[in-house]
Amino acid sequence: MKKILAIIISFSILGCSNSSPYEGLWVIDNELTTQSCQSTMMADVTDDLDENPFGAALAMGMGSAMCGMIANMIPILDIVDNKVEIEAFGEKTMCSINPSAGTFTCDNNNSEPLPISIENGFLVWETPSEEDGRSMKLYFKRKDQ
User: What is the pTM of this model?
Assistant: First the structure.
């Protein structure tokens, strides 16, 4: 009986906790983020491939290099209480996550909240969609502690 009571109490405590799947240190996954970036850029270049194959190939090469640079510039996310401070280009921005809506919003950003989710153990932050509906995903993995 004591074991059952202890189990019930443990589940009650865990069930009522405010822990979020987003909490913790997250580092960019260069491979998945670069692949997402490249597939987004490839969709743009594919339209021009028939008209100018040389220009399209050059754009793909430059785009691939740019995607690698972008992935390496993304800072570590230290998410505490569904909030994270992001520093980029010498400026700090406070951002918050709404776990129930699956959105990410930054204070100095007047744009719409961005989609954020956990997929296969990765934190996935989706960049703003372009007019044609294409968007890039940033993939983060938990940093080992």
Answer: 0.73
